[in-house]
């Protein structure tokens, strides 16, 4: 046995294992050890992104629910979505019913603005009627470009009013009336934004692929059209086209990476996030869909959980483009540098300190525990690699855990095959499995010899068959190059006779 299984059921699990044993905690704590400036956090977003994050905070963090309610109402009143406005009050009432002692009643904080609801609904109905009449008119006249624009405008309208299914229907319908690659690209980008708002991660990749194909076609079309320009102007136009393409590609990379993250494909998510261009390439996505600081957090946590150290150094620390994202969240650089310098206790402290920031993120929240566990496991494996044996007490000091906590974590990694070692529970020592290098070398040499013998036997057999002039001839009437239906072994030369000379195969080769 490599591990002594702990059978004492009365022993309480350590605190860090309690956190990772099940799903994410239902309630997130905000205190001195886990600080969060809610107003500063939500100021990075606008519109629907702002309100959805505030609603998520209400559901997971009772301490911040009243403040999140006020901020969400103020942001919602600047839009035109009555359903989203109502959902704020519904979400707060649900949070209050789950924690009535911590959250004050809704009536003490805000009341529903029925006047705004009526006015907004009336304006939306008038706008909808106008757009539908325009679409009907253009459809009757069979003007493809006008029909496409009418579907696009209706999609934008339904998206702004919260009817995402109708918006998706009109966006995809406009594809039938696209006449250029640029039109297809615009349609795909609109659908991608909508899918990201819906957090429909599995379908994002499909439209990213279509958008990349349309982007290639549109770039070629722009390069091949237009009058010839002077050399200097042509170079400027080329640089402008490349910059525009880079901005679109940056947004597509972010969308693809978010799709991988949503499907728990952390390595691909990190690779794709780190391919993204400069922050300015986000354009109107910044705050409306995602914040630059979010990208820094997603990419770093996924990279620490899956990348090797040289890859982390080259793609994060030495990546100028990604450095601009890290500037939005300064603790990310400290986290990476601590990991690279083997300060694993500091790594775990940072992850714990900013766990509230991670849990209130609508995209990252379901993956925080998985990523934290992967980073912790990798840190333990890296720490033990240079040692043939080490006391658990010393490992516990390096990670800030008790001996029992570090022992349970190490046992889990041994059982998973991550660490090839054994635990001496009596002396509290972790010993690496000793490999007999001499025996391993002999075993490798013997296997190589056996493989060589097998190859030589086959070569000798082939050589003797050729010496005996044994060939396989096709049946009469069958053309050359066709597969023969049967094997006719014909002896020729010195072999004599038509039978198979079994004496040639006797003996060991």
Automatic annotation (TrEMBL):
Cellular-component GO terms for this entry: COP9 signalosome; cytoplasm
Composition bias, Gly residues: 489-500
Basic and acidic residues bias: start-end ranges: 237-246
Key words, A-Z: Cytoplasm, Nucleus, Signalosome
Domain PCI, residue spans: 265-437
Biased composition (Low complexity): 474-486
Coiled coil start-end: none
Pfam families xref list: PCI, RPN7
Region spans: Disordered: 224-246, 474-500
Cellular compartments annotated: Cytoplasm; Nucleus
Keyword Coiled coil in annotation: no
Main localization category: cytoplasm
Gene3D superfamilies recorded: 1.25.40.570
Top-level taxon in the UniProt lineage: Eukaryota
UniProt record similarity statement: Belongs to the CSN1 family.
UniProt name for this protein: COP9 signalosome complex subunit 1
Organism listed in the record: Trametes pubescens (White-rot fungus)
Lineage, broadest ranks: Eukaryota, Fungi, Dikarya, Basidiomycota, Agaricomycotina
């Amino acid at each position: 046995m490599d591990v002594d299984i702990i059978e004492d059921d009365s022993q309480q699990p350590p605190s860090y294992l309690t956190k990772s044993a099940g799903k994410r905690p239902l309630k997130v704590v905000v205190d001195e050890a886990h600080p969060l400036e809610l107003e500063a956090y939500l100021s990075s977003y606008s519109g629907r992104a702002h309100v959805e994050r505030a609603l998520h905070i209400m559901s997971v963090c009772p301490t911040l629910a009243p403040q999140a309610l006020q901020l969400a109402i103020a942001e919602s009143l600047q839009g035109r979505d009555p359903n989203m406005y109502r959902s704020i009050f519904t979400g707060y009432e649900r949070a209050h019913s789950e924690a009535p002692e911590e959250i004050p009643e809704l009536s003490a904080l805000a009341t529903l603005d029925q006047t705004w609801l009526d006015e907004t609904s009336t304006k939306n109905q008038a706008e909808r009627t106008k757009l539908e009449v325009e679409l009907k008119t253009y459809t009757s006249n069979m003007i493809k470009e006008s029909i496409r624009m009418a579907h696009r405008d209706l999609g934008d309208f339904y998206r702004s009013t919260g009817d995402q299914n109708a918006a998706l229907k009109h966006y995809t319908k406009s594809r039938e009336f696209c006449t250029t690659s640029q039109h297809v690209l615009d349609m795909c980008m609109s659908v991608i934004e909508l899918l990201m708002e819906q957090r429909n991660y599995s379908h994002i990749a499909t439209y990213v692929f279509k958008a990349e194909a349309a982007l290639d076609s549109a770039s070629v079309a722009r390069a091949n059209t237009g009058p010839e320009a002077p050399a200097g102007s042509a170079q400027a136009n080329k640089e402008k086209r490349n910059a525009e393409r880079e901005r679109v590609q940056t947004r597509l990379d972010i969308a693809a990476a978010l799709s991988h993250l949503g499907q728990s494909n952390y390595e691909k998510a990190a690779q794709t996030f780190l391919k993204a261009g400069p922050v300015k390439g986000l354009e109107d996505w910044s705050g409306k869909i995602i914040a630059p600081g979010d990208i820094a957090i997603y990419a770093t946590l996924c990279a620490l959980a899956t990348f090797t150290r040289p890859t982390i150094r080259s793609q994060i620390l030495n990546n100028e483009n990604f450095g601009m994202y890290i500037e939005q969240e300064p603790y990310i650089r400290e986290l990476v540098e601590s990991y690279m310098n083997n300060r694993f206790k500091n790594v775990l402290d940072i992850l714990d300190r900013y766990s509230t920031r991670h849990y209130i993120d609508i995209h990252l929240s379901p993956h925080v525990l998985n990523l934290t566990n992967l980073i912790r496991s990798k840190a333990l494996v890296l720490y033990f690699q240079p040692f043939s044996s080490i006391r658990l007490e010393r490992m516990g000091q390096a990670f800030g855990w008790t001996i029992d906590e570090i022992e349970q974590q190490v046992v889990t990694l041994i059982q998973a095959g991550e660490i090839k070692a054994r635990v001496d529970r009596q002396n509290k020592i972790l010993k690496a499995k000793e490999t007999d290098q001499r025996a391993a070398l002999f075993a490798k040499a013997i296997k190589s010899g056996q493989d060589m013998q097998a190859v030589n036997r086959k070569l000798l057999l082939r050589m003797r068959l050729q010496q005996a002039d044994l060939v396989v001839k096709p049946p009469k009437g069958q053309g050359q190059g066709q597969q023969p239906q049967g094997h006719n072994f014909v002896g020729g030369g010195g072999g004599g006779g038509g039978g198979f000379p079994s004496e040639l195969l006797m003996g060991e080769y």
